[in-house]
Amino acid sequence: HTLKLAEKFNFEKPLKYNRSRFEDDKRDNTANENASSEAEEEESGRDNSGGILSWIDDKIFRLLHGKTTFYTDMRANFTPHYVKAPFVAKHKERFFGHDEKDFFTTAERSSMVYRMLQQTPYHKEGDRVFFGIDELVASGCYKAAYPLHDGPYETDTHAVPTNNRQLLRYYWASYRRWNKYQPLNLIRMYFGEKVGMYFAWTGFYTQSLFIPAIVGILVFGYGYMGMGDDYVSKHICKSGDRYLMCPVCEDKGCTPYFISEICSTAQVATSVNNIGTLLFCIFMSVWVAYFLESWKRKQALLGHIWGTLRFEESDEQIRPTYTQNCDSWKYNPRTGRNEPHMTRKTRYPRFLTTVVLILLILACVLIFAIAVIVYDLAVYLALFDVPRWQKYARWLSSVSAGVMSLTLIIIMSKYYAKFAVVMTEWENYKTQLEYENNLTIRRYVFEVFNFYSSLVYIGFFKGKFNGYPGNHPR
User: Fold this and answer.
1) How crowded is residue 337: how many other Cβ atoms within 10 Å of its Cβ?
2) Is the CB of residue 400 less than 8 Å from the CB of residue 379?
3) Residue 47: what pLDDT?
4) Contact 159, 170 (CB under 8 A)
5) φ, ψ for residue 317 (rounded to 5)?
6) Which among 97, 77, 79 has a CA at the least distance from the CA of 87?
7) Taking 80 as the threshold, does the pLDDT of residue 294 lie above it?
């Protein structure tokens, strides 16, 4: 019965086909009398095909992991030596390891049980058939439904891990292993492809940031070492009493000042605004493009190894809340039964309502940003009128405005996250993939406005409101 389910759910399993042996046989059949020497050259060329980057990666791996068998085996066996194909029960003998106990991974067995529970009907009303464990959980018949772990995670002090859970806990799920190789295949075998892909992304992203971090440190060091050596800051610092500047405001407390008084500020500014920063920006533009293309390659490789390239949205199960909130039922020729269906008359008004509410919330974000700006100016002017606070007016207004802006950002982000979930649930998407995609878009749009509106003001507008002598803002 398990084999039939694996075939029904289109699981991909390794065939009894050794790719490396096939390539060796083909090379032996087509080689001439110098085949042995050419094979050695080809092998050495294959080992060095990665070039200097592969050599550096290998050296770093050995430095971090030494000769630990677990990590070396996981890395060596990351790319399988067998091709995969959709499992067919009547040809099970053609698949590698079909008679072994762990032929199906923990994640695959859990997926089989979950899909069976999802496709099992539990109630019928006329032509309407209600099915799926998630609907029973959503309706309150059960409190929860989840797979159990595969054995205990505790091990004795000097004992060897005996199951995948213990292996993951000892070699991966520990703060002491933060710099170790991620056993992605083992993570995928235990938790499934979705969790495995998540940790593949986080690990790849963190590792890719290593080079920009080094370049950024070098650029910062270059700016720090050269602070005060540029022409502009030297000219300002050595000007003495030569250049008298106009007051920054028109109040009685504002007095003229010499430009040499801002020597330290000019040195710090020029240590950041230098040729190194410009080159770093150009480097980051190139790095982002390289990173995206490299991740696409990594994602395609993982999809090929894990058999997720053939995933279709139509294979996803219907969300239980979708069934409960639909206003009609429709025959599905793919499954051969009536399924819940949401008409356009119901869906479009909900979608438009969500869009209008999101626009109103974004308008509130802009209003709050403007309110913080007004607060900053008001506090500055109020403190500047007090003689003993004039020296600290700008600092106090800026700090208090920054704290207020951060508080508003955190509060709005927290409550909007709940709002986005409620509105996306109300729109009632059919599959989990549709639900997650729409929820991600809504949160992304809001987070951009919420977190970056103040930075846009600082970068493009703040300096334009200072005025000039004879026309300072009040």
Assistant:
1) 14
2) yes
3) 44
4) no
5) -80, 155
6) 97
7) yes
In single-letter form, the type of residue at position 178 comes to: W
Q: Where are the alpha helices (DSSP H) in 49-192?
A: 51-65, 69-76, 106-118, 133-138, 164-171, 184-191
Side chain identity, residue 66: G
203 half-sphere exposure, CB direction, 13 A CA radius = 18
Q: What is the mean pLDDT of residues 160-187?
A: 85
Inter-residue contact 437 to 443 (CB < 8 Å): no
Q: Hunting for tokens 């040729």 — which residue is that?
A: 275
Tokens of 408: 């508003």
Q: Please say whether the beta carbons of 332 and 338 come within 8 A.
A: yes
- CA neighbor of 188 nearest in space, from 285, 293, 74, 82: 74
Q: If residue 285 lies in a helix (H) or strand (E), which one and from where to where?
A: helix 275-306
Sign of the CA dihedral running 319, 321, 324, 330:
negative
**What pLDDT digit, counting tens, does each position of 188-226 carry?**
888 888 899 999 999 999 989 999 999 999 999 988 888
Mean predicted confidence (pLDDT) in 130-146: 83
Predicted pLDDT of residue 214: 94
C-alpha–C-alpha distance, residues 94 and 82, integer Å: 12
First-to-last alpha carbon distance for the chain, in angstroms, is: 81
- Closest by alpha carbon to 134, among 432, 341, 434, 428? 432
**Beta strands at 257-258 and 244-245: parallel, antiparallel or unpaired:** antiparallel
Average pLDDT over residues 290-306: 89
Q: What is the dihedral of CA 213, 219, 220, 224, to 10 degrees?
A: 160
DSSP 33: T
Mean pLDDT of the chain: 80
Interval 96-131: pLDDT, tens: 777 777 788 888 888 888 888 877 888 877 767 777
Q: In whole angstroms, what separates CA 326 from the centre of its chain? A: 33
Query: Considering the chain, what percentage of its residues have pLDDT values greater than 70?
Result: 84
pLDDT at 426 over 90: no
Task: Give, in order, the Cα–Cα distances in Å from 79 to each of 168, 180, 257, 302, 386.
Answer: 19, 18, 69, 9, 71
Which are the contacts of 280, defined by CB distance < 8 A and separation ≥ 6? 215, 216, 219
